[in-house]
Specification:
Layout (H helix, E strand, L loop, with lengths): L1 H13 L24 H12 L19 H10 L14 H16 L7 H6 L6 H96 L1
Length: 225
């Protein structure tokens, strides 16, 4: 008990003077709909929701639910699935789990390890709730920020794709209209050409007919003479 009190005192000394303000949005769940829910319960619900599909993880409190390190690993793996293979982890390997979770959170989420692996091991199956909550709250803050940045990027990329598709559709439409205009122009040109050829043919026939009439006249004149 004395050792546990020493750990708590050390943690409180290293913890930030002001609590971390979490700006993450809660997804609707049966655990978070109460209007009077405390910050702790909101954080707890958020963590439980994010890790609900992970085998061996059931987040119900800020003590025993985190004692084997799997809850930390699951929460971090939810945002960084390529960082490690969660299915290969074992609840009995507590030190490995804590080390993996805290190091990955610091490296990939820029979350300072307020908890130490040695202290979590010494606190056993019921670590101090305030120590766990303070670290988890800070971790949620960093993870939710990453989540929002990712969503913003996806929205931006989607908007760019739609803009590109719209421009492409416009170019295709313009090309189609141009081809139609060229086709109509070609048809008109062909029609004009045919009319011109018809006119020229009619003129030639007229000249021939005129020559024939002149010859007839000449023959009649000669005959009368």
């Amino acid at each position: 008990m004395s050792r546990k009190n020493d750990i708590i005192a050390k943690f409180q000394q290293n913890a930030p003077e002001t609590p971390v303000v979490c700006n993450f949005k809660l997804q609707r769940s049966s655990m978070a709909v109460a209007s009077g829910a405390s910050i702790k319960q909101k954080v707890l619900s958020w963590c439980a929701n994010k890790t609900r599909n992970y085998e061996g993880v059931s987040i119900e409190n800020f003590s025993s639910s985190w004692c084997d390190g799997l809850a930390f690993c699951a929460l971090i793996h939810r945002f960084f699935p390529d960082a490690f293979d969660f299915s290969a982890l074992n609840a009995s390997e507590r030190e490995k789990n804590f080390t993996l979770a805290f190091n990955t959170a610091e490296t990939m989420a820029d979350c300072y390890p307020l908890l130490e692996v040695g202290d979590m091991l010494l606190m056993g199956n019921r670590p101090d709730p305030m120590c766990v909550f303070t670290y988890v709250q800070a971790l949620c803050h960093h993870l939710s920020k990453i989540e929002m940045e990712k969503k913003d990027k996806e929205k931006k990329d989607t908007a760019e794709e739609k803009k590109s598709e719209k421009m492409t559709d416009g170019e295709v439409e313009t090309t189609t209209e141009k081809k139609e205009e060229e086709s109509v122009g070609g048809e008109n040109k062909g029609k004009d050409g045919k009319e011109k050829e018809s006119e020229e043919s009619s003129a030639v026939e007229g000249e021939k007919e005129k020559e024939r009439e002149e010859r007839k006249v000449a023959v009649l004149v000669e005959a009368q003479a």
